[in-house]
Amino acid sequence: MAKLSLLLLSDGRFPAGGYAHSGGLESAVADGLQVADLPRFLVERLAAVARPECVLMLAAARAARVPDLDALLCLDAEAEARTPSPPLRTASRRLGAQLLRSACTVWPERALIAAYRAASNATPRAVAFGVVAASTGLDDLDAAQGYLYEEAAMVSAAAVRLLPLDSADALRLLTDAEPTLNRLADEIVSIRYPAARIPSAFAPSHELRSLAHARREGRLFAT
């Protein structure tokens, strides 16, 4: 059943709201990004943004297995502190809330999902994903690969709407990124950080573009 949970969480049809986000790709395209730049954009986003978020997600998954609700709420605060852009913080909260709402419907017997959803005032996406992943039986490696894949798939799906790119070519982006995704997942699983020492993303262009994107009229994606 754990593998089915991984497939569900990685499926674009799972109603977690990711379809409304481009992972910063829309603002990058507005700044001149072309099709040829996509592979580099995806790999750099995985390393600079998704990796530290995934470390935090795994910390949440490990706390959920105890289970330790207080530790999860502490990780909420750490996630908020690591997201300086207000639009990105709001988006993370909404994505986390939508994930938890859907997970409570799909897995109503998993009490911790409902308990965390009721206790959290923030529901950042990384923490929410970790709670759901652990509650549905995913191990660390499956959870890490699932989280990183969802990040990559968000960019790939958005690219079809934002650039002159065939959907098959967009999927090729994912297969080309597989070595990076697997390397990052293996690395993340092998290390453990105290909550206060979990690394932060360092992607200033991503943060700055998110502020401009939030003010842009006629945008296709929330982020």
List keywords for this structure.
single chain, mainly alpha, Urease accessory protein UreF, 69% helix
Protein architecture, described:
- By secondary structure, this protein is mainly alpha-helical.
- The chain has one domain: Orthogonal Bundle (Urease accessory protein UreF), CATH 1.10.4190.10.
- 69% of the residues lie in helices and 0% in strands.
- It has 11 helices and no strands.
- It has helices at 2-10, 25-30, 38-65, 69-81, 86-106, 111-119, 125-135, 140-162, 167-176, 178-189, 204-215.
- Helix 3 runs antiparallel to helix 4, helix 3 (38-65) runs parallel beside helix 10 and helix 8 (140-162) packs antiparallel against helix 10.
- The chain is globular and about 45 Å long.
- The mean pLDDT is 93.
Can you summarize this structure?
This protein is 69% helix and 0% strand. By secondary structure, the chain is an all-alpha fold.
Report helical residue fraction.
55-70%
What's the name of the CATH homologous superfamily? Urease accessory protein UreF
CATH architecture label: Orthogonal Bundle
Q: How many separate domains?
A: 1
Biggest sheet features: none
Shape category: globular
CATH fold description? Urease accessory protein UreF
Describe the SSE topology.
Elements: H1 2-10, H2 25-30, H3 38-65, H4 69-81, H5 86-106, H6 111-119, H7 125-135, H8 140-162, H9 167-176, H10 178-189, H11 204-215
